[in-house]
Every structure is written in structure tokens, then in C-alpha cells.
Specification:
6-stranded antiparallel sheet; alpha+beta; 14% strand
Length: 214
């Protein structure tokens, strides 16, 4: 199958954890991989919960908070070969506080087909050959080399944390759990990712396609 190398060794599979499969694609639920070392390390960078804040930096009225552990339950990763990955998010993640910076950038005039911070940071982090964000609920990545699912999920968690801290930093939210230095580092990481060769190439290609369709 496509997720094995020439010697029959597993590529996308994570030892000891059985994914769902339809015979063509492997699908891991995020919480299946919560105990993997790379994912644990990524979760250690996250706040205790992702919360939506108002203009004053207070928790927004009626907002829904999201712990990192719950976030994993709302994410799945699918692949056929370990190179091409589809990350699927439930609404609570895709449209929740963890991805608030994407809304801010698009409200400021970004076209929907440009990569949001999470997708851009993942693309740069994994050295993707291609990336797209066809909808808020999906991120598609094509990598140069196949990697296992836990490393893809760890990159996703790091990217979501970066976007979240970046959004709070842009809103001027600074407190004990969200210190200014982490917000500044997140902003630098987003800027670096969006300026990376892979993200620039992806956005140039999609811009050209958009021009042709106009």
C-alpha cells in the first residue's frame, strides 16, 4: 500500500496505534496520538485553554473555551502515502478562538484562498512542497518526504498555538499565561512563515490561478 516504503516498512503509521482505513487512506483521530512524544512536547507549549477575548482583553461574553486536550479530539489527519496529508477540523477548532488570527487577517482584506497563519506555519515547519486551505475546516499539505502522523499532528498543534498567541498579541492581550515575549515570538514566527519560499510560491500560484479565472 502507499503508506509503506519499498522494504515494506510503515511510513505514515504510528507504532501501536491503529488508524481507521478504507483500504486507500489512513485516518488518525488526534486524541489517538496524544501520548506520542512529539505531540506531548507540542502540547507543552499550549496555554491551559484557548479562550476568545473581547477588545479589552477579557473573556468574551458567550465564548466557548477549548482545552488543548479537547482540541485533539476535534482534529483528524488522513493520508494515502505519508506525503499528502489532509487535516480536518471540527467547527469548534476551525472557527474558534484557536484560529482567531485567520479571521483578523481576512477581515483586513486577505483573500480567502491565502493561507492562514496555522496553514502557513505548518507549511514552513514541515517544508511542504504544496499547501492549501480550501475551507476553514481543512488544511491540505504535500510534503517532500513521507512522515508519520504524530509528527504532522505535533506541527499542527505548534502552529495553532502560534496563531492563537499571535491573535492575542495583535489584540494587545498580555497576562501571566500570555506574556508579551511569547506573543512577539508568535508574531515573528507567523511573519517568517508567510515570507518563506514555500508559502510565497503557493500563494503566487494560487494568485495566478485566481487571475486566470477572473
Amino acid at each position: 500500500m502507499g503508506w509503506r516504503d519499498r522494504r515494506g516498512r510503515s511510513i505514515a503509521r504510528v507504532p501501536g496505534i491503529e488508524p481507521r482505513s478504507d483500504g486507500r487512506e489512513l485516518v488518525y483521530d488526534g486524541d489517538q496520538l496524544a501520548g506520542r512524544a512529539a505531540v506531548v512536547a507540542a502540547l507543552a507549549t499550549a496555554p491551559s485553554e484557548f479562550v476568545e477575548t473581547d477588545a479589552n482583553g477579557d473573556v468574551a461574553y458567550g465564548s466557548v473555551s477549548l482545552t488543548p486536550e479537547v482540541l485533539l479530539k476535534l482534529v483528524s489527519l488522513g493520508t494515502q502515502d505519508g506525503r499528502t496529508w489532509a487535516i480536518t477540523m471540527e467547527d469548534e477548532v476551525a472557527h474558534g478562538p484557536a484560529r482567531a488570527a485567520t479571521d483578523g487577517l481576512r477581515d483586513a482584506g486577505e483573500r480567502d484562498w491565502f493561507l492562514g497563519p496555522t496553514a502557513a506555519v505548518m507549511a514552513a515547519d514541515l517544508g511542504a512542497a504544496w499547501a492549501q486551505e480550501p475551507d476553514r475546516e481543512y488544511i491540505d499539505l504535500t510534503l517532500d518526504e513521507p512522515i508519520p502522523a504524530d509528527l504532522v499532528l505535533a506541527s499542527f498543534v505548534r502552529a495553532v498555538v502560534t496563531e492563537y498567541r499571535y491573535a492575542l498579541w495583535r489584540a494587545g492581550v498580555v497576562d501571566q499565561e500570555h506574556p508579551d515575549e511569547l506573543g512577539q515570538a508568535a508574531a515573528d514566527r507567523v511573519r517568517s512563515a508567510r515570507a518563506s519560499a514555500v508559502v510565497q510560491a503557493v500563494e503566487a500560484d494560487v494568485r495566478a490561478l485566481g487571475t486566470e479565472d477572473a
